[in-house]
Amino acid sequence: MADPDNGWRFAQCFGDKGDVDDVTEADIISAVEFDTSGDFLATGDKGGRIVLFERNEGKKGCEYKFYTEFQSHEPEFDYLKSLEIEEKINKIRWCKRQNAAHFLLSTNDKTIKLWKVFEKSLKVVSETNLPTDAQPTRGGSMLKSSLKLPRLIHHDTMIAAVPRKIYQNAHAYHINSISVNSDGETYLSADDLRINLWNLNVSDQSFNVVDIKPVNMEELTEVITASEFHPTHCNLFVYSSSKGTIKLNDMRTAALCDQYAKLFEEEEDPQSKSFFSEIISSISDLKFSRDGRYILSRDYLTLKIWDMNMDSKPIQTINIHDQLKSKLCDLYENDCIFDKFECTFSGDGKSVLTGSYNNYFHVYDLESRNDIVLQADKSAFKAKKAGSTKNKPTVTTFGAKKNRQAEDPTMGETADFSKKILHASWHPQENTIALAATNNLFLFQQ
Q1: pLDDT band with cut points at 50, 70 and 90 for residue 1
Q2: 363 - beta bridge partners?
Q3: What pTM value is reported for the model?
Q4: Alpha carbon distance 52, 57 (integer Å)
């Protein structure tokens, strides 16, 4: 008999496991990212803190343990614009590891920092330069022969985190993306209207590669929502817009990429146009597959997979929030229609992952077209302890015509729109996923 959940199971939960209704705002997780090896996992929160987890080698399977925590950003105040800059971590990206230390980029709305995280050996003096039984001579001086070099011995190892570079004053608007280039030397940062290219070693200079700001701001029709470098070609990057388009740019053609190389856009059906069309078509996240052949994009209702060789329409559209089409008016009033859900490919590119409401998330198998719906909830943690099967996942197959209202519990009448999985990351080599559910980090594995 086929396993309905394809072997997916709850593995770990970090954070407050009790039923706490009043969650501290600063504890809400706002970024989750595996490193390139999958041995380390980083989370950022609204309080500006970064917590790192490392793989627990002593355990079977993919299990993680606390590694270190540090304060990445502090709240600031822009005196020129009279604006508060909150400390919330918007994005974390790991740099390629070149030695024993880890390097990662973190950003809030305005400032990007390059952090070096390394193990520091603490030493103490075990022997002084004088023997304990040394006696002074008649003149009060010591014999040279009784002096010796002090000895230091290893006392403890601590994990230190230091900011190696601080990249600031380059964005007039809120930073929504950072992406490290495959060359290992440069990275890009994107805000609502501009994309800048940086050298990791140069913090006081960046190059503006995309600028969509109109001369008259009243003529503004779209904003940049996400941007990412191609995984293997260091000259290519894509960015998405609030109009639902994806533009591929080639930095070899011009220094300022005002002219895109390719435009990925799906023609909208005029009959389905409504007041909410533009809001729900805005792309909240996009990712390349590891081989760079496909682009995954997420808008409010769907996931779309684009082939780099075909820009006329996506090769696959996966409905995530089909049942919310009738509730768009309510979602507009409570601002949930503006929620930015992230999406990601699996390491092998055969599956995709995105979040939903009620702390549900979707793992979609691109080959079998199975949509596995699981819940990252504290009840899963309790069920594991009790050995219960309460949180069995729901599987829907997009090929078959099924009543998804009955099958997909995420869209029931009692959907809790305050509980949502916005941030997630997939282990680069294994089927292990990390998800942020308010102030908890959940790990599921297959």
Answers
A1: very low
A2: 353, 372
A3: 0.85
A4: 16
